[in-house]
Amino acid sequence: MALPTRENSNVSLSDSNYGPIPGESRAYVDYNKTAASFPGNITGATMPTEAEPPGPDDLLFQNLISAEWAIFDFYQQGVEAFNQSSFTDLGLPNTTYDRVINIRDNEAGHLRIFQDSISATSVKPGPCTYDYGLNNASTWLALQVVLELSSMAFLTGLVREAELKDTMSALVAIAEVESRHNTWALIHTFNTNPFSGPADTVFPYANEILDLTNRYIVPGSCPSANPVYPSPRQKLPATTAVVEKAKGIVEFEFTDAGNQPDWHWQQKDRQYYAVYFHGVQNITMPFDIKTNQSDYPIMFDAEQGMIVAVIANKVGAPSLDSVVAGPALIIEQPSFS
Questions:
Q1: Please, are residues 39 and 13 in contact by the beta-carbon 8 Å criterion?
Q2: 2, 14, 142, 330: which could join 307 in a potential S-S bond, CB 3.0 to 4.6 Å?
Q3: Under DSSP, is residue 249 helix (H, G, I), strand (E, B) or coil?
């Protein structure tokens, strides 16, 4: 089958039988070409073709495909920028570049699944332009494992938002594939034990993690018809977590000079907390607003998986509006220290 090209009308994307069908076509398994694979080779948003109310999970899939465009483009940039020797020069097996292409093809399949999951009454968001600030294969591989870990964390949260059982099942199926991608990276690239303990991290507020991908979007580059991403968007102060395990502390750095926390806007002496999510549990530590530090949660199984940390005004961050900054991703496995 010839793949549709950029010249095709986006209206055709409303037809689930248009182009290769996920689960039936090898295009999402081993397309194996440098050029972007369908539907990643079609730009622009797809407008609604019916004037009816949105489907029950349209907003969820609009958020998800907007994130998936960023992930697909990350792999596409890797396929275009590198070749087999880019990775063998790092001492990696000569199959590494082929696997990167395979994952790119899988991600293209995710795009099509998510497009098909948005009803004909809602916009299907198109890709923006993305800048990952990468200049070599080594830094690309480091970000790759962060993106895959993040994908699993936000998918566990999105499941909680789904209205339809078919959506819940689809999200679990996609998460399983992302887990395979990450397992490959941990074994193949980092020579690390891939097992992260009995459960990957559950983070209940998926849009907060999705919002992290906005840092890679070139301002003004998204199709004008795209909805706000993610929706709803809290625009929380961005933070990174610097872990000093020898001292038993975590220091939070608020990285956006134009969006800093205001610790006193609700009340002067309010207590804030660093809430750490790992596995299916969370642990709360007092947060010092003078030093921007908290104790490190030593109760968690060390060097396993990922910890998602937020700053909250209530123990356990029990609701979306209790989170006032973050999230910060603390990658325990592999260790980048």
A1: yes
A2: 330
A3: strand
